[in-house]
Amino acid sequence: MARYFIELAYNGRNYHGWQIQPGTPTVQEVLNRALSTLLREEIQVVGAGRTDTGVHASFYVAHFDTCQSLEYPEQTVYKLNRILGKDIAVSRIYPVATDKHARFSAVSRTYQYFIDKNKNPFTCEYAWKVYPLPDIRLMNEACQVLFEYRDFTSFSKLHTDVKTNNCIIMDAHWKDTGKQLVFTIKADRFLRNMVRAIVGTMVEIGQGKLTLADFRRIIESRNRCNAGTSVPGHALFLCHVDYENDTI
After folding, report:
1. What are 115-125's pLDDT values in tens digits?
2. Which residue out of 52, 87, 99, 171 is catalytically annotated?
3. 232 domain residue, yes or no
4. Domain residues for 188?
5. Which CATH number do you get for residue 59?
6. What is the pTM (predicted TM-score) of this model?
7. Which of 4, 54, 235, 240 matches a 20 to 30 Å C-alpha distance to 124?
8. How many domains does the chain divide into?
């Protein structure tokens, strides 16, 4: 069997996240079906991680195994994109070692969350409009607090099947682009709903509803009920996945 990495992007609006779920459309299910049709064998793709319902990926990595040798990957990309709908686009397919894994070989993932500063009909489907607009200075101060901790149970969806809620956050910051406030966060792993819960809590800090001391107490409580409300998923993008000795 040969193993291939596949790079893609998807608009998550019509999907219940990446991972296959019974009775609901997911990106993984659609990609499995398209590759199986094209290669005429049963293909099961493995992704770099889950994304929540409605969340997008401007850059995503998965792998699949096949008994075939794809001599012309560019043609495979072209044919696969013709099968897939407009909301999933494959950019690259290439061979990797059989022990390289899209999920377990990844050393970090990066997400971005977008907040529109003003009502914008051209970005409203991919950014959140919140009132009053939070203070970016206060939210960036909250970002620095994140580096003090490893256990982010307070920002995790309840009753998940993970063995640990520890994550190493490598970068977290807000940037004002003029028209939007953009939150970027990079970590070795993320818990389910983690980014949306962090953003929701930070927005409350930026609006003066919570203090930095409150933020520390929320994290230390390890209680999801104490954190802010999760923000809408339509403004969240997985935008990068890094691999050891090979930044994609």
Report:
1. 999 999 999 99
2. 52
3. yes
4. 108-241
5. 3.30.70.580
6. 0.94
7. 240
8. 2
